[in-house]
Amino acid sequence: MTVFASSAQSRIYFLEVGGEKFAFTNTFQHKVQPCNERGGEKEQTLKKGFSSKKESNAKQKMSSNCRSGIMVSIFFVFYLTYLFLGALIFSSIERPEEIRLKDELRVLKTNFLNRSCVNSSSLETFLEHVLTANKYGVSILKNASVNTNWDFASSLFFASTLITTVGYGHTTPLSDGGKAFSIVFALLGVPFTMLVLTASVQRLMHLFTYWPMGVCQMKAGWSSRTASKVQFVLLLGVVVVCFFVVPAAIFSAIEQTWTFLDSFYFCFISLCTIGLGDYVPGEQSGQTLRPLYKITVMVYLFVGLMAMLLVLRSFHKAADLHGLTSLFHLPKCEEEEEDQEPIIDSLESSELDREALPHKQLTAEPQTSYNSINR
């Protein structure tokens, strides 16, 4: 017996008995088909059929990957457009309110300084207005009032922290329209962000998780568990260096009042989406290229969230290979186990039970009803 062709699902065998060839498979219970003297032509036909099927499967997979990549690219462009439009709307709504609040503080400060005698009530009123304005990100100091919180770059930074759920809270909407738009913008933007991050991390998993594990298994002969350990440790080290240590050094060099520990603390709080807001970059007065700095920090936060999600997915993959996830999962329900029972075994058992039952002989006598017929 010789094997002619095989695949993941079936094999074709050729058996020569008495000068005649017979072809059959191991998956489908076909009747044995004799091959005549022109069996070689049939073999060639079968070879061509398998090769054409393999090529068609490869083409379908390639077209599916291309279609998925195009859809992700289109959605990413839509996401950026949504983010830019949100920044423009926030800037158009909140910029006039910020200017109005700054003018009120300036008048209040002038009136307070022109008074020769200040009583406690006027001082408390002045401090109350100052603290309220500071809560919305507006300072009464002259050097701090130069910066605006609602130009396009700052609005874009605020919109990105809103839909990525980082939310530092250093700048909040001043008007009722801005608050209402924040609700609508976040209601749609947060799911969009999750979709973009999930689609991006799924593709990064092939490059930074599956491919290194496959190389370790093929080249070094490691087991899947050992390969997953090495891959996760290397990935974690790269993420810590590229998204925590190096950015912390850059932030400590740009922000004059930040130490390296403060900068590292900011990176960790931000990429974990905690966002306490006690450290926010680009808020000091006199910083050069402040709009570009804000946009760069926004890009860093988004890419850093991808890296953190990639680490979490890789950790889950390693834990799954080591059987750790099964320790925390609930057992399967009885209905699920019944649904997963093999149908063939149940059919065979029912046939055996049917054969074990005593059979009654059919008679030629007339029957009163259909149910009275012996089966």
The percent of residues in helical segments reads 55-70%
Principal-axes shape call = elongated
Radius of gyration: 35 Å
Number of structural units classed as domains: 2
Q: Number of DSSP helices?
A: 10
End-to-end distance, in Å? 45 Å
What quaternary form is this? single chain
Q: What proportion of the residues form beta strands (DSSP E)? A: 5-15%
Quick synopsis:
The chain has helices at 39-114, 120-135, 152-163, 176-219, 224-254, 260-271, 290-321, 325-328, 334-339, 343-356, and strands at 2-6, 11-17, 20-25, 33-35.
Task: Outline the structure in words.
The protein folds into 2 domains: 2-59, no CATH class; 68-325, Helix Hairpins, CATH 1.10.287. 66% of the residues lie in helices and 6% in strands. It has 10 helices and 4 strands. The protein has helices spanning 39-114, 120-135, 152-163, 176-219, 224-254, 260-271, 290-321, 325-328, 334-339, 343-356, and strands spanning 2-6, 11-17, 20-25, 33-35. A 4-stranded antiparallel sheet has the order 1-2-3-4, with helices on one face. Helix 3 runs parallel beside helix 7. The chain is elongated.
Keywords:
single chain, 375 residues, mainly alpha, Helix Hairpins, 4-stranded antiparallel sheet, 10 helices
